[in-house]
Specification:
17% strand
Length: 77
């Protein structure tokens, strides 16, 4: 519950916003903002057939890495 409370207070461009949560008996659910392009995890790991067609240049990889690093830095402050 403490983690949910701390996540609810976050607001950063590189972090998906937690909109709400539900606790019902032993069931738990977190509700995040809709990301129409899907998650970074899905893009990297689940769409393997499309990844082979992509030309990931250094600039694209740099922007992804910097975005992740900025989000992590914000969470650790």
């Amino acid at each position: 519950m403490n983690e949910v409370a701390s996540i609810c207070g976050t607001s950063h461009v590189n972090i998906v916003t937690l909109l709400g949560f539900c606790l019902e008996g032993s069931k738990r659910a977190l509700v995040y903002e809709f990301m129409h392009n899907g998650s970074l995890e899905k893009f990297i790991f689940e769409e393997n057939d499309h990844i082979q067609d992509l030309q990931w240049d250094c600039q694209t990889l740099y922007h992804i890495t910097i975005g992740v690093a900025r989000g992590l830095e914000y969470l650790h402050k």
